Amino acid sequence: MDVGTGNGWCMDSVVPSTEVAERIGANWPLERVQALDAGCVARHYRYQDGGGWLGLISSVTEPFCAGCDRARLSAEGSLYTCLFASRGLDLKTALRAGADDTQLLGLILERWRVRDDRYSELRTLGTSPRTRVEMFHIGG
Ligand code: SF4
After folding, report:
1. Which one, 1, 39, 68, 103, has the greatest CB density within 10 A?
2. Per-residue CA distances from 6 to 2, 58, 81, 114 (Å)
3. Which tens digits make up the pLDDT trace of 2-52?
4. Buried b (16+ CB within 10 A) or exposed e, 19-30
5. Distance 41 CA to ligand 1 centre (A)
6. How far is the CA of 13 from the centre of ligand 1 (A)?
7. What is the pTM of this model?
8. Geometric angle at alpha carbon 94, from 92 and 99, rounded to 5°
């Protein structure tokens, strides 16, 4: 994925997950199976020979921002509500000022309530922001 800015990611090199499934299935026939839970973002397949299963997460070619529940806390105490966000919510200042768990939870819930992150959808539209947090900065 194009997380951060330093990995040389290029849309032209992306292989859509449908093609990944087709290529694998051409050699080892697959069949779709239901997601393990309703919030699961992977599309699951089972090998028809019973040899196992695989899951494909199509965050680039089939964005799922509307149902996303990702959040990361950076080492500096900023809460990022999207892996591609430009900025996070500063929780460290509140923590250092003596905020208790309830107050911190309130800050987090309010941020979550107003978040409108949809980087992957905007990428598809060609309007995604150029500035984004580096993945190593938020863990991962
Ligand atoms: S681009 Fe951001 S909002 Fe969309 S799925 Fe990825 S982390 Fe979630």
Report:
1. 68
2. 9, 21, 21, 29
3. 888 788 888 899 999 999 999 999 999 999 998 778 778 899 999 999 999
4. eebeeeeeeeeb
5. 11
6. 20
7. 0.82
8. 120
